[in-house]
Design brief:
single chain; globular; binds zinc ion
Length: about 90
């Protein structure tokens, strides 16, 4: 796995888990969020821009389907700003 993909995968995993904890009030990630996580990981692994890719949500090809794209944007909005202080998002 490419290091960029591994890093983005890890960050998305943290974001979705935090989102579920915060918004869905679960102790463990719920099936909806798990599905979103599986989906984003699958998209990451098949991304054609591995070597020089933008963060998936900013990616121009929008390989996410509309429904999942809306969900991941909501996750980014909800937990993204908090995470700037605890995670090196600037290195993405
Ligand atoms: Zn959830």
């Amino acid at each position: 796995m490419h290091p960029r993909v591994a890093r983005e995968k890890r960050i998305i995993e943290i974001m979705i888990t935090n989102f579920c904890l915060d918004v869905h009030k679960r102790f463990e990630i719920c099936s909806d969020c798990q599905e979103l996580l599986n989906y984003t990981e699958k998209r990451l692994l098949t991304c054609p821009f591995i070597e020089n890719k933008p963060v998936c949500v900013n990616c121009e090809i929008h390989c996410y389907n509309k429904n999942q794209q809306d969900k991941i944007k909501l996750v980014m909005r909800t937990v993204g700003s908090k995470m700037i202080y605890t995670n090196p998002l600037d290195t993405l």
